[in-house]
Each structure stands twice: as C-alpha cells, then as structure tokens.
Amino acid sequence: MPVLHRKKSGRRFLTSERQTISFDLTDNFIIVGERINPTGKKKLQAQLREGSMEMVSAFAEEQEACGAGILDVNMGMSGIDEKAMMLKAIETIGGITNLPLSLDSSHVDVLEAALRRYPGRALINSISYEKTKVDALLPLAKKYGAMFILLPLSDEGLPKDITEKIHIIEKIKEKAFALGLTREDIIVDGLVATVGANKTAATDTLETIRYCKEQGLATIQYLLWSAGAEFYKRQFSDHGHSGGTDHGHCQSLPGTASQLRLCLRPAFAQRRGRYPLYKADGCAERKAGGIRRDGRTADRNTPQATGK
C-alpha cells in the first residue's frame, strides 16, 4: 500500500503551555509586544539586578491587555546573569499570561537554555547570516522545533541594496531547508531603515515584503510609532498591504492595539479574531493627537504632535 503523505496547510503555529496561535499569509496582523527589554529602561534594569520580576510581570499583563498576541522577552544587560534571568522571566511570564513567547538574545547559550526550558513552540528573535549566529542557531531551531525571524544581516553588516538583502535571505533559507526546516518555520524581517539615511529604504522594504510574499514567506516589520503615523497610514498601509506584508513588532502601551491595527490595515480594525505578526516601538494611545519622543502622548497643538 502506498504511503499517503499529509499535505501541509501553509499555516504557522506558535504555542505557550496553554495556548496555540495560528496564522497564514492571508490573516491580519499579530502584535509582538517588545517592552520586556531592559535597554533604555533604568527602573527595569535596577529591578533585574535585584532579581525582581515586578516590572516584567506588569509589562506582560499590560501588553496582553492591549492586544499583543506574542510577547518578546529580552534580558540582555550588564551586571546580571542573563541566562538565569531569562529562565526566571520565562517562568514568571508563563504564570500570568497564556501568550506564546519570542525569545530574544544575542547569546547562543542563553537562547538554547531558554528553548530547552520553554514549554511550547517559541519564536527565535533572530537569526542573521553572521557565521557565528547562523551556524549555531539554525540547528537549535530544528532541534527544539522553533520558528525563527530571519534577519537579513551578514558579517559585512547591513545589506547595501535590495539585491544583497534578497541574496542574504536566500542563503539563510537555503541553510534552513538543508536542515529540514520549511517556509512555515521562517518569518523574514523586512529590515526597516530610515529614509533620512537611505532614500530607497522605504521602497526596499516594500520590495522585500513583496518578494517574500511571492516566495511564500511570512514577514515581520519594526515600526516607530511617532507623529508621522498619519503619513504611514496613507502610504505604508496601502502599498504595504498590496505588497503582501503580514507581520510586525510592537511595544504596545495601554490603548494602542486597536489604534495600531487601524493604522496598518483599516479594513480589519474591528476584527479581534485571528491576525498574523507585528512589531513597533514607542506605540502609545494617540487620543491627544501625537506621540512625544519619550513615548508619552503629546497635546494635539504641541510641536511634537504636529511634527513641526
């Protein structure tokens, strides 16, 4: 009797101990909350040095309440045992939220310890084409059944143009496939850069998204939620949607989840069911009309709100 091989559905899955989220290339965004990161947060750094998880717990609860579908966890800072603190954070967060986790560290040993301990299918943030990273982390993704964010960087640094970016994506994908990983295990970071530094940055990102969509790869974007959000709503949500963007990263603060979804894909603003991956920093409720550089809401008539 011939062996019947089960066809893949094309859906992606991430899990915690108690919850599974699934998405494919046609679903709406999923917000990835990234506030659990000590970089630039002196109070959080002080608490972590004392071994306290108070702010970590608060950030986890706040982001889930704001609509985050995945929580990113990063414990990278000086003066602590990052591996021990990462394991403690995983245990603490798992006790107060059902959301799947994205494990974020620049150290291979920290990620391996976290993947070994995590009671579910995690997202690795991230794997670049730097030799020390790609050769060590891809086997870990395979070993622990994790999904990973493909970051199109190499030992030479940022790609010079879209051609080099696509070349790096293909090289990492080739290595992943050789290990038995599939398209459904990969989410490509579009590598959003500032137009001020590179005038083709915006179009390069959109071309990356379009290319990945054609290749059947999910994408994830990092968004700086600022006073330029109205321009983003007019430009990126239209062109990005037609190009095929479907994921992103976000530090969600109270009241921002629906606002962010409204900006990114207005047609789905009221849908609260399934939605695939999103990432943004400095998100805050825009009731007053704008966002200050420190992430707090600015008055509608202030220079911060008007962008002047």
Brief digest:
The chain is an alpha/beta fold and 308 residues long. The protein is 37% helix and 17% strand.
General description of the model:
The chain has 308 residues and is an alpha/beta fold. Helices cover 37% and strands 17% of the residues. The strands form three sheets. Strands 3, 4, 5, 6, 7, 8, 9, 10 and 11 form a nine-stranded parallel sheet that branches. Strands 1-2 form a two-stranded antiparallel ribbon. The longest helix is centred in the middle third of the chain and has 17 residues. The protein is globular.
SSE succession? EEEHHEHEHEHEHEHEHEHEEEH
Rough outline: globular
| Parts with pLDDT < 50 across at least 5 consecutive residues | 224-242, 251-278, 280-308
Q: DSSP helix count? A: 10
* Average of per-residue pLDDT values: 79
What is the beta-strand fraction?
A: 15-25%
Spatial separation of the terminal alpha carbons: 72 Å
Instruction: Look at the helices and sheets and give the structural class.
Output: alpha/beta
Main β sheet profile: 9 strands, parallel
What percent of the residues sit in helical stretches (DSSP H or I)? 25-40%
CA radius of gyration is 19 Å
Counting DSSP E segments of at least 2 residues, the number of strands comes to 13
